[in-house]
Amino acid sequence: MQELIRLLNAIEDVRSAGLDAAIATVVRVKGSAYRREGTKMLIDATGKQVCMISGGCLEQEVGEIAQQVMASGEPQVHFFDLDEDLVWGLGLGCGGAVDVYIEPFDEGEAHRLWLAAVRGQASACLATVIASENPEITKGSRMFIDEAVTATGSLDNSELEAKVLALAKQKMSELYPRSQTSSFELPGGSVDVFLDVTVPAPDLVIFGAGHDAIPMAEFGHKLGFNIIVVDARHAFVTEERFPMADQLIRTHPSGLAEKVILGPRSYAIVMNHHLERDKETLKFLLNTPAPYIGVLGPRKRYNDMLAAFKDEAFEPDAEDLKRVRNPIGVDVGADTPEEIAVSVMSELLAVRGGYEAGFLNERSGRIHARLEG
After folding, report:
1. In this structure, are 84 and 177 located in the same domain?
2. pLDDT in the model for residue 107
3. Which of 129, 248, 277, 284 could form a disulfide with 272 if both were Cys (CB 3.0 to 4.6 A apart)?
4. What mean pLDDT do residues 250-259 have?
5. Looking at residue 366, what is its pLDDT?
6. Residue 366 belongs to a domain
7. C-alpha pair distances (Å), 161 with each of 68, 103, 137
8. Are residues 174 and 207 in the same domain?
9. CA–CA gap between residue 370 and residue 357 (Å, rounded)
10. Other beta carbons less than 10 A from residue 265's beta carbon
11. 207, 232 in Cβ contact below 8 A?
């Protein structure tokens, strides 16, 4: 999400400067390429580039193609096989193969609505025809689908639009949907449509606003989480201490159920440094669908909380307790608040992506999941 926001800011800059620009989007991946479908970069008429679509293998070539696209006004799709030993004589072996859709910046309504949805953190899908054998369907035609599954724009064919609408609805209902290119067989010929799906950034809810919560919030913000800080101490929960926070909530544990909402894309860290407050916060979190509940502190302290739950006749379900992590973080020998934050954020990323954290050099095979398509 942070990368998309940088792209949106760059778009506003080129608009203000009156510059032509092109956007390059990874629309299909095969193998273990560095980036995934939906990754974008912007290239303006001066050659300036914002964001990256690879690990440095593609940007120079794509930048040159973007200048041609700006001059012609016509979008292009280019296939890049990064399994070649040498990429354009640069000696860069990156791995995987990708299709990149390079288009002049589009001021049309469908694209404008999608950009606004990204900025407003709303679920949405932008469907773009990137290849067409059907003479009635134009490459570059677009349709925007909002979270209510209402469509704006046109793909030049009602049958195609109905199929894309159904697929967009399915994608937006997923917890972590991936953008994708889909091929549709129609009477007049096949059509490839790229569905660019965006959903709101996940929440990182930090319970406790002590000194060590500040780097936790800072690193979480840089990784694209919406930051929510919860603490009863008004002097601690301030914009001056947490300028990166999207929401500051001042409440005691007794008010959590009323003031804090967590969903299946919310990640929680309990770090009040107060046994009773942490216990009550944990009890609250176990009754939410949050997939990750991290409890800072030693295992004995966590076990004391569980023992106290028994005394209070509160017995969490074993499945719910599987969501709890204690101690939290990846074992990197973290000591300072900043190091602990890096350790915890590493664990969050691993849990969110379904990975086992560890040393990459100890893995055999590919680093990135191999995709077939």
Report:
1. no
2. 83
3. 277
4. 96
5. 60
6. no
7. 30, 21, 11
8. no
9. 18
10. 18
11. no
* pLDDT single digits (tens) 149-208: 999 999 999 999 999 999 999 999 888 899 999 999 999 999 999 999 999 899 999 999
Output the pLDDT for position 33. 58
> What crossing angle do the helices spanning 299-311 and 275-285 adopt, rounded to 10°?
70
**Domain-located, residue 246:** yes
Give the pLDDT band (50/70/90) at residue 354. confident
Pairing of strands 40-44, 49-50: antiparallel
Give Cβ neighbours of residue 198 (< 8 Å, ≥ 6 apart): 4, 114, 117, 118, 122, 123, 124, 125
- Domains held by the chain: number: 3
Altogether, the residues listed in the chain come to a count of: 373
* Residue 23: partners with Cβ closer than 8 Å, 6 or more residues away: 7, 40, 41, 42, 43, 102, 103, 105, 106
Helix extents (H) in the chain: 2-17, 59-72, 109-119, 158-173, 213-222, 256-259, 275-285, 299-311, 318-321, 337-353
In this structure, the answer to whether residues 246 and 349 fall within a common structural domain is yes
Sequence letter at residue 166: A
pLDDT bucket at 3, cuts 50 / 70 / 90: confident
**Residue 115 is assigned to a structural domain of this protein:** no
Same-domain pairing of 326 and 207: yes
Same domain, 212 and 177: no
Phi/psi region, residue 341 (left: phi>0; alpha: psi -120 to 50; beta: rest), is alpha
Beta bridge partners of 248: 229
pLDDT value at position 161?
97
Does pLDDT of 27 surpass 70?
Answer: yes
Please give the structure tokens belonging to residue 8: 């949106």
- Classified as helix, coil or strand, 208 is coil
CA distances 222 to 3, 201, 216, 217, 291, Å, are: 10, 12, 10, 9, 21
